[in-house]
Amino acid sequence: MTQCRLKGQAFRRHTTPRHAAQHRARRVPPRPKPDKQTEKEKGNTMKHILPLIAASALCISTASAHPASEPQTQNETAMTTHTLTSKYSFDETVSRLETAIKSKGMDIFAVIDHQEAAHRNGLTMQPAKVIVFGTPKAGTPLMVKDPAFALQLPLRVLVTETDGKVRAAYTDTRALIAGSRIGFDEVANTLANAEKLIQKTVGE
């Protein structure tokens, strides 16, 4: 029995280290635990990125729905300003318009001579006069209703001469009241009639 134990002990002393080494070699290394700090940082990063993505999408959508405003084109300007070619000379066209305006009971508040003003300052330009006219009876109620409409009054008509042709230009009535509190029916028999007067005077 003693011998057996000794042999057994000897055997264990001889074999145990090798078996232990083999056992350690077969042992699967433990899986590393997730880095909680890294996952937290990733979560925080996503929290910052998602709002940026949403904001970018909103900006793109808004830009598509509301394109940036652009300068007024010539076609748009043509819709707000009427230009007529006069059958008469420059001075005669101005005279005819002044007479026609007064015949309708309207006042001429001023006649602005742009060419003369240019000459006084040593400059040259084509003939150009602006007749400023109107009647307080028609304009006052409009300015009472919409005080800002005073910027559109009195009415004006430009007479100019370019390329050997005399032209008269004025603002369209609907464009004049656009963005104001004034309805077209309120100016149909006053401001709108001024358009017809200019057309008739220059075209006859």
UniProtKB/TrEMBL annotation:
Residues 10-30 have a biased composition (Basic residues). InterPro entries: DUF302, TT1751-like_sf. It comes from the Bacteria. Residues 10-44 are annotated as: Disordered. Residues 112-172 form the DUF302 domain. Residues 32-44 have a biased composition (Basic and acidic residues). This is Protein crcB homolog 1.
